[in-house]
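Hi there. Long-time user, first ticket. I'm pasting a complex I've been working with (about 233 residues overall). I'd like to know whether the download I got is complete or cut off, because the file seemed smaller than I expected. Thanks.
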Amino acid sequence: DAGVIQSPRHEVTEMGQEVTLRCKPISGHNSLFWYRQTMMRGLELLIYFNNNVPIDDSGMPEDRFSAKMPNASFSTLKIQPSEPRDSAVYFCASSRSRGGARSYNEQFFGPGTRLTVL
Amino acid sequence: KQEVTQIPAALSVPEGENLVLNCSFTDSAIYNLQWFRQDPGKGLTSLLLIQSSQREQTSGRLNASLDKSSGRSTLYIAASQPGDSATYLCAVRQESGGSNYKLTFGKGTLLTVNP
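Hi, the file is complete. Here it is re-exported in full:
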């Protein structure tokens, strides 16, 4: 298995531009997570999908951030318009859950996208 | 709100030394605890996962222990090697409530093993 795949690996953009980050979860995994990592705040969960449905988006910073999961093998995280404070590493992770409170298995992380907004 | 703290923030040791990394959490109602390794510019690699009912897990030179009631976990690395140099993160999953899918991470310990 190729693991979780993210693209691009690095993105440099100017303030005000739209940024789209992409993620392909591990085949057979039905839970997908987007995280953001900064020196100040560490790793924070932005949004969680289960079976392609957004379950918890309480970590999304503001309306400039949006995420979609049109099918089981693809998800996007979009920032529009981008701001310098969005500069961070964005990780996608996936896991297999079978439903119920005790079914969440370990999460597997992608290599991340390092975003720099100038 | 769950808070996870890792001490020390950074650690430098000579090759061959045994070492312990610490993780503490404020809410003991956890489902499991996971230790990750993060190399510079890379993603997170899962090292060990301890269920709340377990006391420890071992993988090779790594041993992770969990004391749920006191809110503590340790990661023991035996006979450290330069290749062990990385940032080590611990994360807990809550037992209760509707957000038991959520991992709360510590900020990590940056380990440097000097040859």
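A couple of notes from our side: The two ends of chain B are 41 Å apart (CA to CA). Chain B has a mean pLDDT of 92.
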